[in-house]
Amino acid sequence: MPLTDVTTDIDNRTLTMTCDFPVTPERLWQVWADPRQLEKWWGPESHPARVTEHDLTPGGLVKYHMTGPDGEIYPGGWEVIAVDPPHRLEARDFFADADGNPVDTAPQSRMLIEITATEGGSRMVNTSTWESAEDMQNVLDMGVVEGSSSAIGQLDALLAA
Amino acid sequence: MDEKRADAFFHALSDGTRRDILRRVLAGEHSVTALAEHYPMSFAAVQKHVAVLERAGLVTKRRSGRESLASGDVEAVRTVASLLREFEDVWRGRVAGIDSLLAHETPADTTSTD
Question: What residues of A are in contact with residue B108 (Cβ under 8 Å)?
């Protein structure tokens, strides 16, 4: 299994995942840098992704849409903050409207990808952070609290975390 | 998790008035007196609902003069935890996808620089 560690930091709204792959950092970088490879893994199997714009330079945009089983389209994208091939990519991950533009009212996250060489290949550390307390509030406003009594099954694990 | 705590938590959320109180105190600190004005029941009954939420750890109370002020912050933390969990599931799928992509290519495709 490539996934070797998952750390959730509730106070800082951060999720860190560490993965090891038996390939070089250059090869691993390609799954991000080549839009045809990116769209093979970005969307869930049920929601394949199509990358329509791919500019991995600071300030550049990556735009994509996923297609659900019922044909519904889910547009999204990233705004690149920093890039240093094949080791580092930092971007703002956003929901988009039908034209591919960021929806400012939707919760946003920041993702940082760090790739380093290891003895057996490469290690990729992905740190995702919800950007602000406002984003958390948006999600509360979406009725999460109301739904919580129906989501009881999940809560054991949450309280133990 | 502690079974008693789980019971208190689920019990607290099983009542519509208590869920409503929780929503209000998550938005900001409320005195129990102010909360009681929203419900067609006695002040004492509202006070009891707040106490149930407090025992479950969903609401904290502090005294200010003669008023008892309630606020709910714990649930916000749990909400974030559940969001992070959904996020984690999405990324687990992506990592599996990368793994599968890398495993299915022919070795000749890769440039070996090390």
Answer: none
